[in-house]
From TrEMBL:
CDD domains: AdoMet_MTases
Keyword terms: Lipid metabolism, Methyltransferase, S-adenosyl-L-methionine, Transferase
Cross-referenced SUPFAM superfamilies: S-adenosyl-L-methionine-dependent methyltransferases
Species of origin: Nocardioides iriomotensis
Pfam family of the protein (one): CMAS
Name of the protein in its database record: Class I SAM-dependent methyltransferase
Domain of life according to the entry: Bacteria
Keyword Transferase applies: yes
Family note: Belongs to the CFA/CMAS family.
The UniProt record lists the keyword Methyltransferase: yes
A GO biological-process term: lipid biosynthetic process
Molecular-function GO terms, alphabetical: methyltransferase activity
Amino acid sequence: MTSTLNRTTSSSTPSVTIGEAVERIMPQGLPFRFSAYDGSAAGPEDAPIHLALRNERGLSYLLTAPGDLGMARAYVRGDLVIEGVHPGNPYDALVYLQNNLRFKVPSPSEAMRLARGLGLSHFLPPEPPPQESLPRWRRLVEGFRHSRTRDAGAIHHHYDVSNRFYEMVLGPSMTYTCACFPSETATLEEAQANKYDLVARKLDLKPGMRLLDVGCGWGGMVRHAAREYGVQVIGVTLSREQATWGQEAVRREGLEDLAEVRHGDYREITETDFDAVSSIGLTEHIGVRNYPSYFSFLRGKLVPGGRILNHCITRADNQFRDTGAFIDRYVFPDGELTGSGRIITVMQDNAIEVRHEENLREHYALTLKGWCENLEANWDACVDEVGTGTAKVWGLYMAGSRLAFERNEIQLHQVLGVRTDDQGRSGFPLRPTWLS
C-alpha cells in the first residue's frame, strides 16, 4: 500500500500554498504563526503560538475531517505540532486559540478553488490514528447504543488504558472524578478525600449501614466509606482493570470484611435493601434515554428512607446533544450529556424526592489542572507506558475539558435524593448536616 506520507497532488504542482489557503479562511488575519511542509508560512513571526504542519498526511486529516476531529488526528499522529507547548498540558495554547481564532466558511465555489489549488488527492482520508474508536454507525457490530456489550466496549476503550498510567496522572487517590477543594491551596489528594467525605456526609453514612457504589472506578468511595464510616460496601465497575486494582487495594487496606469491588454491569447487582447508593461519574455513560430505567433501578435497591447521591458532568442547559467528534472517538465513545434539570426531573418522576443539588464546575476545572500537571511532570514515564499518541490524547482532552468547565460550557452537579417511606417521611433533619 502506498504511504499517505508520500502522496503527491493528482497532476501538477499545487497552485495554492498551504499558508495562502489558511489565510483565506481567516479574513481577520492569523493570531498565530503557521508554517507548513511546503515551505509556506503565515501569521506574525512573534506570535505566542506556532502551529507547524509537518506532512501531507496531516493536510489530508485537516481537509477530510474539518474541525476538532481532523485537528486531533493530525495532532495525535504528530503531523500537526504546537511548537513550544508541552503536549501533556496544552492549556495555555488552547485558551489563546479559543480566544483568537475566527474562521470564515468559504463559499462552495471558493472551497472548490482551494481544493483544486491544494490538490484533490489530499481529499482521500488517511487511516485514523490507532487511538481512535470506530464511528458510531460501525459500533453497531457491538450492539445497539448502550446495550451491555457495547457499554462494556466503550468503558474498555477509556478505562483499560493502563493502571500504571492512571496512577501517574490521577495521583495516589486513583480517583477519576471531580474533586471538591476545601480551599484553592488544597492539594489534589486533599480535595479528592474531601469529595468522598462530602458524599458520605450527604448520604448520612453510619457504621453498619450498607452502601452500593455504582461505577465505582478503582474503589475510592468504596474504601473511604468502609474505612472512615464502618459501612458495608459493594462497588461495581465495567472495567476489569479497575476492578482488579480496586479489589487489591481493598485487601491492602485490610477492608475485605467490609468492602468489595466487583467487575460487572450495575444492572447485574441482585442485592437489595441498601441504606444508600452513590453514583459518581457513571451517568455520563448510560445514555439519556436510559435515565428513567437507571434511576428506577437504583431506587429499587434502597430501603425506605435510603438516600441516593448522583454526581456527574452536565451541560449548562437541558438540551440533549452528543459529545463532539473528538470526545466521542478518542475519549468517551457513546458518551451523552444533558443538564441537571433533566436529571432532577427524571429522579422526581421515578419517586425519588430531591433534597439538595449543587454545581461543582470550578472544582472540576481545578481537578483537571492537577491531572494535567501530573501528566506533564510524569510525561516520559507515561509515554513509555502508553505511547506518545495516547498520552497526547489525554493532554489535549484534559486541558480542553478544564477550559470548558471554566467557561461554563459544561458543569458538574451533585444531586441528593431519598426514597421516602409509605407515609412520605424522608428522615432528613430540618437543616443539612453536611454543611456544618
